């Protein structure tokens, strides 16, 4: 039993060594292919640029970023400390209000539904009762409206013609204020 386990362990170690060798070979090939994509002068310039940028970052950017993050965490802690009593007050006052509103909504819902149904009934009944009277009124009054329209049309046209220049003057005067 122990020999089988030792043999299995030895086989697994050999397999691991083979896979590691294969992985390093593939990585080396990939690096060579990647290097072949770029011309040598570009690789040199990019390496120099990367070196300059990383030096500049370490000298200027990283300290500034560290200071910024430190100040931000201080401000965050200060804001959290300042807001804590207000948050507690809000929790203590808002939670009971929310609960009371939920109870109110639950208790008022049947009454609201009943009032809504009754208002629809009243609207439909009043509409059904008034519609015939309204139609009759319209039929009776329409000839009078037409006659009044015929008689007053020349006078309305005359008033419109007389007041047109004055209306234009008022419009042009008020134009800057209407925009």
UniProtKB/TrEMBL annotation:
> Which regions form coiled coils?
2-29
What is the native source organism of this protein? Answer: Aegilops tauschii subsp. strangulata
PANTHER family according to UniProt: OS08G0519400 PROTEIN
Known Gene3D superfamilies for this protein? Apolipoprotein
Protein name (Swiss-Prot/TrEMBL): Uncharacterized protein
Q: Which SUPFAM superfamilies is this protein grouped with? A: Apolipoprotein A-I
The source's superkingdom equals Eukaryota
Q: Which UniProt keywords apply?
A: Coiled coil
């Amino acid at each position: 039993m122990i020999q089988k386990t030792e043999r299995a362990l030895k086989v697994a170690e050999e397999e691991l060594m083979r896979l590691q060798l294969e992985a390093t070979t593939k990585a080396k090939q990939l690096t060579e292919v990647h290097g072949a994509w770029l011309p040598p002068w570009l690789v040199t310039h990019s390496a120099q640029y990367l070196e300059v940028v990383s030096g500049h970052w370490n000298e200027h950017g990283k300290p500034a970023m560290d200071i910024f993050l430190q100040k931000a965490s201080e401000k965050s802690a200060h804001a959290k400390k300042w807001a804590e009593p207000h948050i507690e007050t809000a929790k203590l006052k808002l939670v009971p209000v929310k609960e009371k509103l939920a109870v109110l909504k639950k208790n008022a819902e049947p009454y609201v539904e009943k009032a809504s149904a009754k208002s629809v009934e009243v609207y439909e009944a009043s509409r059904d009762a008034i519609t015939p009277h309204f139609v009759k009124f319209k039929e009776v009054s329409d000839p009078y409206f037409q006659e009044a329209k015929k008689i007053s049309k020349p006078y309305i046209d005359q008033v419109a013609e007389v007041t047109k220049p004055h209306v234009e003057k008022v419009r042009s005067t008020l134009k800057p204020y209407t925009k």
